[in-house]
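Weekly sync, protein design subgroup
Attendees: M.S., D.O., the rotation student, P.L. (late)

Item 1: inverse folding check
M.S. brought a backbone from last month's batch and wanted to see whether the design step gives back something sensible before we order anything. D.O. pointed out we never logged the input encoding, so this time it goes straight into the notes. Structure tokens as presented (331 positions):
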């Protein structure tokens, strides 16, 4: 007997390098329950997957719904995945993880359909489904976090590429002679404009004798330096911190200009921790992107911060699962 889709719920998991987020929503994307914990990426693979299962279970219990009310689980993971097989292929964050059958692991635990996708794809889908890009046909999403990921929605469909690994927008070159990335390229956007890259550039400048009030603030413990702290110092007229922020927004502007020229989208959506900079992030990006883009393309598109906050990836993962099951007529 076919289930009534309007009376069912779906679980979305955002498996990121910093946080693990589980959101329960209805099939229209309305949030019912939301749980977030640190990923603890230094733990073993088995421990991390076990914690994911526990977090999903907590989210289910918090709703007081029976397991039969759930249509499935969508997972957005921080790495290369095979959408077709449900395997987590590899990731710079989890270099020891190779071809992990993550979908099967979770499906066997909860006896529900599970779909695995890239976390940036999931965030993109969330913002297109019920967020900033709702109602649009073509949007590009950049996830600005530990690194930088991306997702592409073309003609209302998530573009995954020939072997499900398209949309690695963080690995476009924005500095030809830049630092070498794990992918083999030099000067990747992710390496230069993500939170980790910001910290690494700041540290390189400190090591060659540059000064910053941040050094005294962390009492010499450089592990305490974060992108958030660098931004805060830049607002307090710390010259070095401001320089790093200016470099970051310039690289992002270059990357976004490339995306505008290639895809001519209706919107570029920015999500992730760096968007907390607000207009201090957007204004220089606008300036850089406008200078590098055809006016007819730049003036048509909107560059905006997403509306779903830290729920974008988990809501999007839930949405991917829902739409996939509808397409396959399993519900």
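Designed sequence read out in the meeting:
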């Amino acid at each position: 007997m076919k289930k009534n889709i309007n009376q069912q719920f779906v679980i979305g998991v955002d498996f990121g390098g910093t946080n693990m987020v589980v959101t329960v929503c209805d099939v229209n994307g309305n949030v019912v329950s939301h749980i977030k914990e640190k990923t603890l990426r230094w733990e073993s693979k088995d421990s991390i997957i076990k914690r994911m299962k526990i977090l999903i279970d907590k989210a289910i219990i918090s709703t007081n719904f029976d397991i039969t009310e759930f249509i499935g689980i969508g997972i957005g993971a921080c790495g290369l995945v095979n959408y077709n097989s449900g395997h987590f292929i590899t990731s710079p964050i989890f270099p020891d993880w190779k071809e992990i059958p993550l979908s099967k692991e979770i499906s066997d635990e909860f006896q529900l359909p599970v779909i695995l996708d890239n976390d940036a794809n999931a965030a993109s889908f969330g913002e297109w489904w019920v967020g900033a890009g709702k109602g649009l046909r073509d949007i590009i999403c950049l996830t600005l976090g530990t690194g930088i990921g991306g997702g592409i929605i073309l003609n209302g469909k998530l573009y995954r590429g020939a072997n499900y690994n398209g949309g690695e927008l963080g690995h476009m070159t924005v500095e030809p002679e830049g630092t070498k990335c794990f992918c083999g390229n030099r000067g990747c956007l992710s390496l230069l404009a993500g939170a980790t890259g910001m910290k690494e550039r700041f540290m390189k400048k400190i090591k060659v004798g540059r000064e910053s009030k941040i050094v005294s603030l962390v009492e010499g413990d450089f592990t305490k330096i974060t992108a958030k702290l660098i931004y805060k110092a830049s607002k307090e007229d710390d010259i070095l911190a401001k320089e790093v922020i200016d470099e970051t927004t310039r690289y992002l502007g270059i990357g976004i200009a490339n995306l505008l020229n290639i895809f001519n989208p209706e919107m570029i959506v920015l999500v992730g921790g760096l968007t907390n900079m607000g207009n201090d992030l957007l204004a220089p990006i606008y300036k850089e992107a406008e200078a590098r883009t055809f006016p007819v393309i730049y003036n048509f598109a909107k560059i905006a911060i997403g509306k779903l906050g830290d729920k974008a990836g988990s809501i999007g993962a839930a949405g991917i699962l829902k739409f996939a099951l509808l397409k396959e007529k399993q519900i």
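Discussion: The two ends are 9 Å apart (CA to CA). Confidence is low (pLDDT under 50) at residues 1-6.
Action: P.L. to compare against the previous round before Friday.
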